[in-house]
């Protein structure tokens, strides 16, 4: 079970956190606390910035504005995991969902990758960050994942760190036990999970990926999953077999 307070609202802020510091909140955050949650001055919340751990704080509301008076530290900063998530961009609602779920499932880096059969070429990095923050606030992690610039699959392959095991979710892989496939990866290896676009991978893309060292070709059962479902399924398997679920 989670060893932390998951009932108090948790707010991500950019400012340094320390006892006695007062942090003016952005309009949207002030609105969320005072109008959506109807919290009044003096109400306790939790706050974190990805660097200084988690702190308890009290709300000071003045009209539409609100600030936080930081109290005691509730949890020390934890190091992020080491799990990269590589994905072909999807249309808005699906990418929102996928980014939130990937963050809840503990990825440390979000890396959009353009592939031939992808239908979306542009990623809204600000929106992705907003979704990552929302998921982090909700699930209790203390560090935000890095959000990388979009690259092409060719660039990914050229720059791929060969010591990082690449879990390649391949809709064309023969059905095989995914747990057994992942168990072949040495414990504590740095990992990346790759999920393709709704159009799937092209034959030459698949061939180039399978030539890389330390690639695990993962089959996710006998049905074709939508990319956002594949993300949840693959990251769940990886966390259960090789990651922080054990
Ligand atoms: N249009 C493709 C399916 C793409 S599904 C086709 O019909 O063949 C989108 C992505 O989800 C795939 O590129 C793959 O990364 C992942 N995926 C979906 N189903 C999968 C499965 N059964 N096994 C492995 N990966 C899968």
Overview of this structure, please?
The protein has two domains: 10-75, Hypothetical PUA domain-like, domain 1 (Ribosomal Protein L25, Chain P, Beta Barrel), CATH 2.40.240.20; 83-241, SPOUT methyltransferase, trefoil knot domain (Alpha/beta knot, 3-Layer(aba) Sandwich), CATH 3.40.1280. It has 246 residues and is of the alpha/beta class. The mean pLDDT is 96. The strands form two sheets. Strands 6, 7, 8, 9, 10, 11 and 12 form a seven-stranded parallel sheet that branches. A five-stranded mixed sheet has the order 1-3-4-5-2. The chain is built from seven helices and twelve strands. The site of S-adenosyl-L-homocysteine has 18 residues, from helix 7.
Q: Could you give a short account of the major beta sheet?
A: 7 strands, parallel
Percent of residues in helical segments?
25-40%
Instruction: Determine the structural class based on helices, strands and strand pairing.
Output: alpha/beta
Give me the Rg, rounded.
Answer: 20 Å
| Portion in beta strands | 15-25%
CATH architecture assignment of the largest domain: 3-Layer(aba) Sandwich
CATH class of the largest domain: Alpha Beta
CATH fold category name of the largest domain? Alpha/beta knot
How many angstroms does the end-to-end distance come to? 13 Å
| Contiguous uncertain segments of 5+ residues | none
Number of helices: 7
User: Overall mean pLDDT score?
Assistant: 96
Q: Please tell me the total number of domains.
A: 2
Total E-strand runs: 12
In one word, what is the shape? elongated
The quaternary organization reads as single chain
Element-level helix/strand string: EEHEEEEHEHEEHEHEHEH
The distinct bound ligands, ions and cofactors come out as: S-adenosyl-L-homocysteine
């Amino acid at each position: 079970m989670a060893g932390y307070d998951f009932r108090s609202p948790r707010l991500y802020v950019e400012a340094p956190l320390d006892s006695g510091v007062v942090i003016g909140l952005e309009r949207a955050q002030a609105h969320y606390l005072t109008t959506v949650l109807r919290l009044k001055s003096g109400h306790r919340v939790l706050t974190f910035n990805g660097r200084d751990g988690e702190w308890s704080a009290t709300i000071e509301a003045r009209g539409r504005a609100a600030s936080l008076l930081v109290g005691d530290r509730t949890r020390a900063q934890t190091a992020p995991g080491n799990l990269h998530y590589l994905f072909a961009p999807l249309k808005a609602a699906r990418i929102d969902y996928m980014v939130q779920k990937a963050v809840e499932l503990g990825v440390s880096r979000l890396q959009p990758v353009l592939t031939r059969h992808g239908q979306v070429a542009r990623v809204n990095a600000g929106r992705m960050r907003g979704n990552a923050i929302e998921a982090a606030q909700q699930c209790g992690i203390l560090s935000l994942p890095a959000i990388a610039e979009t690259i092409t699959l060719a660039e990914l392959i050229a720059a791929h760190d060969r010591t990082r095991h690449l879990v390649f979710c391949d809709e064309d892989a023969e059905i095989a036990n995914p747990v057994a496939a992942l168990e072949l990866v040495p414990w504590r290896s740095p990992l990346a999970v790759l999920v393709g676009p709704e159009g799937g991978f092209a034959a030459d893309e698949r061939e180039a990926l399978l030539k890389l060292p330390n690639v695990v070709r993962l089959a996710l059962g006998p049905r074709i999953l939508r990319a956002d479902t594949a993300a949840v399924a693959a990251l769940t398997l990886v966390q259960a077999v090789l990651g922080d679920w054990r």
